[in-house]
Amino acid sequence: MIYAFGKALIAFPLINILCCLRVEGKENVPQKGGFILASNHASYLDPLALGAACPRKV
């Protein structure tokens, strides 16, 4: 519950304001089970950006 609150009210708006977020393959994230997220490490905000962009809890 805290994760969803933080993602909706803090991480997602902050990332959208500070940088241009481009997501490729979001439709390939499975509903259940493990998966791998990869980023190009453009900044120290990558963990926030990955959490904001992913449809599931990271």
What report would you give on this structure?
This protein is an all-alpha fold and 58 residues long. It has one domain. Helix content is 43%, strand content 0%. The chain contains 2 helices and no strands. Helix 1 crosses helix 2.
Secondary structure: elements and pairs:
Layout: H1 2-18, H2 46-53
Summarize the structure.
With 58 residues, this protein is mostly helical. It is 43% helix and 0% strand.
Summarize this structure as a short list of keywords or feature phrases.
58 residues, mainly alpha
The helix/strand series, from N terminus to C terminus, equals: HH
Helix content: 40-55%
Low-pLDDT segments, ≥5 res? none
Number of helices: 2
